Amino acid sequence: MKKIVLPVLLLLMLSACKAQKNAADNQTIGGNQEKNLPLLQATLYHQTAAEMRALAYQAFNLAKLQLDREMRRAGLTKKRAVILDIDETILDNSPFEAKLIKENASYPSYWAEWIKKEQAKPIPGALEFLNYVDEKGLAIFYVSNRHDSLKKPTMANLKEVGFPQVAEDHLYLKTTISGKEKRRKKIASDHKIIMLIGDNLNDFSEVFEGKSIAGRYAKTDSLREAFGNRFIVLPNAMYGEWEGAAIDYKYDASDKEKLKRKLNRLKDFEE
């Protein structure tokens, strides 16, 4: 009798464990991670789409062409400089976004922890381009909204992967103001800024800051000749000012309210 009961009990225990695991998996996919499902699609694209890599290569190939054209100009009294954002422009933080998805968390959770790991990899094409800029004798300035308190691990990460000119006076991080115009003007005081590269329109000019979707469209249209010339844009569907505009900058709204605002922005073919 015992020989029969023991296998039956074991089978029942295994079935119960499997049922619990399935229930947990279903809860995670359909419940706990529901608020980050939009981020899931964007992060999956960032990490797995060859198209994303192609767009990055395209951006830096174009930047190199424009750099060469600019270098043929003569008569400048100031040293030329290139300004770049860091996150999703030259360093890939998609593992951080993946962590948020899996933990059902939101920024700034895990952000400082991720930066201190110093493990971000270069965006495709970024390292080769900046080494080319350095070889040409131009100044490179990294202007980022990472907080200044994270300067040490940021510099260590940039140096570890091989980016040039990583020094205190070439790294401008955020202290109290998110807008980058003051930092750009400081660089421009003794350098001719020939190119700005970023994944957010705010990386190029203050005219884009805090604008509605229509306002950002209008400013983009008015500066159309700058894109692909002085301004080089990297793809980033994971986060950015564009998302703020889509929710009317209501960052403190509930997840449900944010989703509602995003859905209301969509236009289908019958509208």
Task: Explain what this protein looks like in three dimensions.
There is one protein chain. The chain is of the alpha/beta class and 271 residues long. The protein has one domain: Rossmann fold (3-Layer(aba) Sandwich). Helices cover 51% and strands 13% of the residues. The protein has helices at residues 2-32, 37-48, 50-71, 94-103, 111-117, 126-135, 151-160, 181-188, 213-222, 241-246, 255-265, and strands at residues 79-84, 91-92, 121-122, 139-147, 171-174, 191-198, 231-233. A five-stranded parallel β-sheet has the order 5-4-1-6-7, with helices on both faces. Strands 2-3 form a two-stranded antiparallel sheet. Helix 9 links the parallel strand 6 (191-198) and strand 7. Helix 2 (37-48) packs antiparallel against helix 4. The radius of gyration is 23 Å and the shape is globular. It starts with a helix and ends in a 6-residue tail after the last helix. Mean pLDDT is 90; it is low at 26-31.
Give a concise summary:
The chain is an alpha/beta fold and 271 residues long. The protein has helices spanning 2-32, 37-48, 50-71, 94-103, 111-117, 126-135, 151-160, 181-188, 213-222, 241-246, 255-265, and strands at 79-84, 91-92, 121-122, 139-147, 171-174, 191-198, 231-233.
What is the first-to-last residue Cα distance? Answer: 71 Å
Work out the number of β strands: 7
Category from helices, strands and their pairing: alpha/beta
| Shape-level CATH architecture | 3-Layer(aba) Sandwich
Sheet of most strands: 5 strands, parallel
